[in-house]
Amino acid sequence: MPNAILDPTGTVTSAAKPAAPRAPRLASLDGKRVGLLINTKQNARPFLDEVGRLLADRYGVTLTKRTKVNFAVPEPEDVIKELVAENDVVITGVGDCGSCSAAATADGVVLEAAGVPVAAIITDSFIPTADAMAALRGAPGYKYATTAHPVAVLTEDKVKERAAQVLDDVVALLIDESAKDEA
Amino acid sequence: MTAVNTEGAAASAAAPDPDEAQRAIEYCYEQGWSDGLPLVPVSKPLLDAFLATTDKDPDEIIGALEQVGRDVNVRTAAINAAMAGCKPEYFPVVLAAFEALMRERAARGGGFQSTSGPSPLIVVNGPIRKELGFNTAGGAFGPGFRPNATIPRAVGLIVRNAFGIHPHVLEQATQGLPGRWQVCIAENEEESPWEPFAENGGVTGGVSAVSATLTRTMEFVDNRHTPNHEDVLRDIEDTVNRMGSLIFPQTSVALVLCPEHAQMFAAAGLSKADVQNWMIEKCGHTGREFELAGKENVPRKPDGTFATGEEFHRILSTPQQVPVIVAGAKNAAISMVVRIFGEWSGSSVPVGEKK
Q1: Does the beta-carbon distance from B33 to A74 stay under 8 Å?
Q2: Average pLDDT value for chain A
Q3: CB A170 within 8 A of CB A51
Q4: Does the pLDDT value for residue A17 go beyond 50?
Q5: Which end of chain B has fewer CB within 10 Å, C or N?
Q6: A182 pLDDT band (50/70/90 cuts)?
Q7: CA–CA separation, B142 vs A113, rounded Å?
């Protein structure tokens, strides 16, 4: 009986992770509390500011803004708790690099599991890494919004244009009008 | 079965079966374990030989990437080291290198996933260099020497297999860099005029130790033109100053000096600290120069404002941002400026001895 060839991947702890549930959608954003989780990447702040401004105009939402502790990794537990306590929905981004796009989806999955609908915004160059991270976190097929890469080099006007373009996708990620009966 | 040479004469009957070896190598490729080059298929007896070189428990966790929910224990590290082509006796160096690397904030954070595609620079000091047959002389950045070549590859395979960071998926390197997972320098202590690098990382007394940091690329400084050490320092300074590499208010560079440059500096009375202080003092740009590259948001000052116009912005401020290592042959005055990703932890790890 020959020796087996040994597997170098070790114990894949993520395989044992239970499926992360998605938060129930809101029936509407009217008057809701929206948290903007800004990841500090160039143009992330004006991008999310504009998304927030448009939502305030359209739905009368109130905004709270927070900067990610470290764009490259998911937020620590205490920050997640505060985000859950302070907001009805969270919008995070802009994931435009290897680690921060993955971190944006990871934050999204964790917040969803805690009951808060999230719209993570990433640039379209990072779809594979965002999908891989969501699957690792127990949420394969997790939905997020995308905008064309790059964002970092856009002028102020272009950033606003992009924010306006992605707005409907962001709203669609956060609400489900058929959920009105439950609301 | 026997091996056969090209003339058709049978080689020793004791030679291994190449067909079986090839099947085993292909099997490893098919599992997705390879970095692109052939792997050594690992069996239980080979793993046991690796584990016998350390006092560590095979189940001990030696690193974790929280964001991807993966960790690595001693056993899995040993399998990857064996696959990389390490000999069992290299394993304590692999463990020390991995520990040193995981002390880096950038490595624990998103470094391995980064668009910059950084690569470890591993530096080995002490008697272990000779004991294991490291190259300590010419061709310091490789290739040609088994421990220098296989130990960084082992680290790369751990990241790929144990952490699950695969190219185009969780690894998003835009271009990466030549020599990724291939650079392990054994310092040329014999021809260095200064203390071993491990002492700068806190390991003294000539104990074998490993240091590691993440790097983005390197560029040579070929200056065999002058007996004036200040001219050479200015030449190195010019390379350190590359605007293209500057993305934050502060940067970090390792100077891998050839023995000739190091000895020239030492003969002029300079310590490592003097070389470092030269760079700290001189390296930087004016606000205007940053602006011309569209990087006016890079020279941020501690008060939150930015250097503008003719205001000079220094890009280095502590010796830890300018580690100095001596490597290579004493046959030409060629040194290397290595661009560090993030910042060196400033700590070296002693190579564990089996008690």
Answers
A1: no
A2: 92
A3: yes
A4: yes
A5: C
A6: very low
A7: 49
The conformation of residue B250, written as its DSSP 8-state character, comes to S
With a cut of 70, which residues of chain B have pLDDT below it?
Answer: 1-13
Three-state secondary structure readout of A7-29: CCCCCCHHHHCCCCCCCCCECCC
How far is it, in rounded angstroms, from Cα B58 to Cα B52? Answer: 10
SS3 B193: coil
A110 touching chain B per CB within 8 A: no
What gap in Å lies between CA A168 and CA B224, rounded to an integer?
63
Distance CA A140, CA A182 (A): 26
- With b for 16 or more beta-carbon neighbours within 10 A and e for fewer, the B133-170 pattern comes to ebbbbeebbeeebbbbbbbbbbbbbbbbbbbbbeeebb
| Of A3, A103, A128, Cβ closest to residue B43 | A3
Say whether residue A174 is in contact with chain B using an 8 A CB cutoff: no
Residue B121 β-bridge partners: B213
Identify the H or E element spanning B219. strand B209-222
pTM above 0.90, yes or no: yes
**Contact flag B71-A70 (C-beta cutoff 8 Å):** no
Check CB contact under 8 Å for B67 and A10. Answer: no
Q: What does the mean pLDDT of chain B come to?
A: 95
Phi, psi dihedral angles at B322 (to 5 degrees): -130, 60
Q: Which two tokens stand for residue B16?
A: 């291994």
- Chain A CB contacts of B24 below 8 Å: 5
Q: Distance from B334 to chain A by nearest Cα, in Å?
A: 35
**What is residue B15's predicted lDDT score, i.e. its pLDDT?**
85
CA atoms within 13 A on the CB side of B25: 14
d(CA B329, CA B346): 26
Determine, for residues B170 and A17 on separate chains, whether the beta-carbon distance falls below 8 Å: no
Preferred mutation among B169, B171, B248, B300 to probe A, highest tally of A CBs within 10 A? B169
Please indicate whether, in this complex, the C-beta atoms of A17 and B42 are within 8 angstroms of each other.
no
Chains A–B, number of C-beta pairs less than 8 Å apart: 113
Best interface-test mutation with A: which of B50, B91, B115 has the largest number of A CBs within 10 A? B115
Minimum CA–CA partner of A107 in chain B = B67
3-class SS of residue A170: helix
Decide: residue B51, CB within 10 A, 0-12 exposed, 13-18 middle, 19+ buried: middle
pLDDT, tens digit, 9 for 90 and up, residues A67-116: 999 998 999 999 999 999 999 999 999 999 999 999 999 999 999 999 99
Of A42, A71, A98, the CB nearest to B171: A98
